[in-house]
From TrEMBL:
The keyword Transcription regulation does not apply. One of its GO terms (biological process) is mitochondrial respiratory chain complex II assembly. It comes from Euphydryas editha (Edith's checkerspot). The lineage of its organism: Eukaryota, Metazoa, Ecdysozoa, Arthropoda, Hexapoda. Plays an essential role in the assembly of succinate dehydrogenase (SDH), an enzyme complex (also referred to as respiratory complex II) that is a component of both the tricarboxylic acid (TCA) cycle and the mitochondrial electron transport chain, and which couples the oxidation of succinate to fumarate with the reduction of ubiquinone (coenzyme Q) to ubiquinol. Promotes maturation of the iron-sulfur protein subunit of the SDH catalytic dimer, protecting it from the deleterious effects of oxidants. May act together with SDHAF1. Keywords: Chaperone, Mitochondrion, Transit peptide. Belongs to the complex I LYR family. SDHAF3 subfamily. Its main location: mitochondrion. One of its GO terms (cellular component) is mitochondrial matrix. Interacts with the iron-sulfur protein subunit within the SDH catalytic dimer. This is Succinate dehydrogenase assembly factor 3.
């Protein structure tokens, strides 16, 4: 029974994330959708402890993004996102740091052409 509940929770969260991404600008939506899809695939067979942490963090992400994309919040602040606590970098693996850097590069492009952002499904771990 636990496995069925877990699968249901994961599916609901996965769908929620994509629904919340609909409120993002097109470039960020594509980037966010691809990133979420890749992360959920990567963690498909993780151990229960990692799954608990994974679901907790993605749930917080979905809640924060939903709050930030509400029309009232957008009218007041016009911002989306949250700064990463620098202490979190100490807990990340080299692989995660590379992934974070790549994400930073992709979102920091100063271009009017959204097609220049590389949002392919390429797995950063394949490097």
């Amino acid at each position: 029974m636990f496995a069925a509940d877990h699968v249901l929770r994961v599916r609901m969260l996965y769908k929620l994330i994509f629904r919340v991404h609909r409120a993002l600008p097109a470039e960020l939506r594509i980037l966010g959708d691809n990133y979420a899809r890749d992360e959920f695939k990567r963690h498909k067979n993780c151990n229960p402890h990692e799954a608990s942490i994974f679901l907790h963090e993605w749930t917080n992400y979905a809640i924060n993004l939903a709050k930030q994309t509400k029309p009232l919040h957008q009218a007041k602040k016009k911002t989306v996102g949250k700064y990463l606590d620098p202490k979190m970098l100490d807990y990340m693996t080299d692989e995660q740091l590379v992934q974070l850097y790549e994400l930073h590069k992709a979102t920091s492009l100063q271009s009017d052409d959204p097609d220049q952002i590389n949002v392919s499904d390429k797995n950063i771990n394949d490097r």
